[in-house]
Amino acid sequence: MSKKKRNVIVGQSGGPTAAINSSLAGVYRTAKDRGYNKVYGMIHGIQGLLEGKYTDLSEHLQTGLDIELLKRTPSAYLGSCRYKLPTINENKELYDKIFNILDDLEIDVFIYIGGNDSMDTIKKLADYAIISGSNIHFVGCPKTIDNDLALTDHTPGFGSAAKYIGTSIKEIIRDGWSLGIENGQVIIVEIMGRNAGWLTGASILAKSEDCDGPDAIYLPELPFDVDAFVAKCKELLKTKQSVVMCVSEGIRTAEGKYISEMGSTSDYVDAFGHKQLAGTAAYLCNVVGKELGCKTRSIEFSTLQRAASHCASRIDILEAFECGGAAVKAADEGDSGKMVVITRESNDPYSAKTEVKDVHKIANDERLVPREWITKDGTYVTDEFVQYVRPLIQGDVAPIMVDGIPRHLYKPGFQDELA
Q1: CATH architecture assigned to 7-157+309-366+394-418
Q2: Which of 37-41, 200-204, 261-265, 325-329 is the least confident region?
Q3: Is the pTM of this model over 0.90?
Q4: Looking at the annotation, which residues are catalytic?
C-alpha cells in the first residue's frame, strides 16, 4: 500500500516578478490534483516560517476565478524575503527548528520559488534532510527577472520584464522624437541587472519597422568607460535630435567600481552582501550634461519592470504555471535537492519542456550573456540575442478589469498580516 500523502508547503523569496504568482498557482493546482491534503504558504518565505507564519492556501483559492486572479497578480502574494540560511555547521539548531515546524505541519513536499539565493536555501535544506533522515522532499522552482540561473534556458519572470522593457523603450523613443530641443537631448534609461545584462539587452526589442530602437546598450558583462560613453553621446548628437542610451544598473569600471557608486551615498547592503544599485543613469546624465551642454533625462524603471503584470507575456505566465506544477510533480515522484529547469527545443515555432537538475550545480552560480551575443565594441547586442529573447515575450494575458483598472487577488485580513 502506498504511503498516504500529507501536505505541501510553498514559499516565495527574492525580488518579485509579474509571473511568480503564476508559479504559486501551479504549485497549488498540481498539489491538489495529486491528492495532497493541504497546501500551506509560508508568509515572507523561510524567514516567516521560522517565526511560525504560514497560511492554508485553500482559504485564498476557493474558486477557479481566484486562481486566474492570482496568475494575473504581480508581486509575491505570500510575501517575500531576503534571508540567508547559515550553514549547518554554523547553526544546526536553526535547521532542527525548521524541520520540527515542517514535521508539525506534516509536510512531505517543500517548494521554494526564487532565484540564486533561494536555490541556496533548497540546497542546504535538502542536504540536512539527508543528514537527519527526513523524508521531506525539497525542490526549487525558478524565478528571477534577471534570467541569471544556471542550467536553464531562461527563467519565469524574465519574459514579462523583457516585454515591458521593450515596450517602454519604444514609447520613450517615440516621446523623444516629438520634442524639438535646442542642442538636442540625451535620455539615459537605467535597467535592472547587477552582473547579468539580460534585461538591459531586452531593450533591443524596441527595434522594429516603426522604430530604430535604442542608440546604444551597455551590459555589465563588459567594463564601462565613462569617457567613451560621453564621446558616443557626442557623436550621436551630430545626427540625432534625441538620443536614447540603455544602461544596466550594474555597469562598472575596469577596476570594478560600480558607476552607481560614483554618485550615490547609499551604503545599504542586503543579507547576501549585495550593495544597493541605484542612480547610475542620474550620474551619467550629470556627466553628459556638464560635458556636452545638452538637455539630459534619466529614467529608472526600478520596480516597474518586475511589477508590470498589465504587460505580461502569455508564454511567461504559462511557463511559470508549468514550472510550479513540475516542481510538485518532481517532489511527488521522489526528487529532492533539485530545481525545475526549462529546456528550449525550438525557436520557430517556439517550444520548450521542463526537466529537473541538481540544485548543487545551480545555487550561487550566475549565467551571464554570452560575449558573442554582444557586439565587438560592447555598445549593442547581436541578432542572436534577439532570436533568443523574442519568443519569450509572445502573447498577452488580459487583466481582469474592474472599473477600468486591473483586479488582483486580495484577501483583506491576510493582506494586513503581510504589511
Answers
A1: 3-Layer(aba) Sandwich (3.40)
A2: 261-265
A3: yes
A4: 146
